[in-house]
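Retro notes - structure team

What went well: the batch runner handled both jobs without manual restarts.
What didn't: labels got mixed up in the shared folder, which is why I'm recording both outputs here explicitly, each with its sequence directly above its tokens.

Job 1
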Amino acid sequence: MKVFARLDLSLADTAIAMYDAKYANHVWRPVTAIRLGDTHYNPRIVGDLNWTPLLTTAPDPSYPSAHGALSQAAATTLAGFYGARHHLAVTSKGIPRTFAGFQDAATEAWLSRIWSGQHTSLDNRAGQQLGTHVADFVAGHL
């Protein structure tokens, strides 16, 4: 039961902190930055009004990445219980995926957000740091 309590609390607190940060910073999503790049501060940037990400863009600010924050909080919490190199397998839409550890799964989750055009590496690094800090705090207090 302790693993579920720690995981749930880490994810809930990470979500709260992540949304607070999103609306404190108001960082553009890549679709906005790429399309309107030549309208904001740097005259050397050329915008591309026709650029479209692979997935529909979420309506909230980009920084920090929710996938980065939440997957990192989960990976940090679960590694604390089961070890960093705990092998796991998941199936999504009939496609099996295997990972050598929780961090590998978390990394794939946030990298998918760059590949799909939803985030930048800055968003993901901030999300990872946030998720790690919250999970470590919860582990130290629960």
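Job 2
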Amino acid sequence: MSAEHLADDLGHGAAHVWWGTVGGPLEPGAVAVLSLAERERVYAMTAEAGLHYAGAHVAVRCILARYLGTDPALVRLGRLRCPECAGDDHGAPCVVWPPTHLSYSLSRSGPHWLLGVTGGRRRIGIDIEEVSPLDLDAVAPTVLSARELDGLRRQPDHDGRLAAFLRYWTRKEAVVKASGVGLMTDLCAVDVHDAPPGQPLVVRHAAVTGPGAWVVEDIAIGPGRHAAVAREAAAAGPLRLFGLTEMLETRSTPWPSATSSLSTI
């Protein structure tokens, strides 16, 4: 899909999901598109963490600039206020300039990043997690509902339990990011128990303001990673997945409409 048609493709509740991996040093001058605050954060990190952060944020700025028709360095990013506490440090991210109806959500895990974009000021949340060692006995009871814990216990081995946990976790993070409250909420109350295989589900979660129901879908982006996207249930249209091959080239695969088959929980 050409850059000129990206924004036009976001009508009727559609959303785009971009994903990529920071595989090596950035091109000379790439960091120049980052804001001063982003560059300061990069310089405060270790070399590897700084590279992963910078690579993801450079890609995000370049992608958003294509939708917005402007230079990546001119895009100003900020955050909305949390609908629960009105704090401005953990609300949903937003484009401050240029004026736009676009909404986006970014997630990073190691060198991997995931970006969700939608239009019409609709809300979107996204999360990606790499598979890594985790003390499930200690962590799971603090963030999973009773049904999710039961689903975890039904798995035949540790690998199955870890996969189930990460599936639950990415779904939960996607929902609370979309609602704008982030992790400043009781995750045990955000029930994302399994839908039928390969199908989206509707999750009930309401902040003080905004929608109370979200369409949640798992995203398959290769072994060793789990990911999910959440969108307003009342306005969820088709998804399109973009794998970033180069900064100016994409390949895309259309997904079925999220509204074609929903499991409500």
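One thing worth noting from job 2: The chain has a mean pLDDT of 84.
We'll revisit the folder naming next retro.
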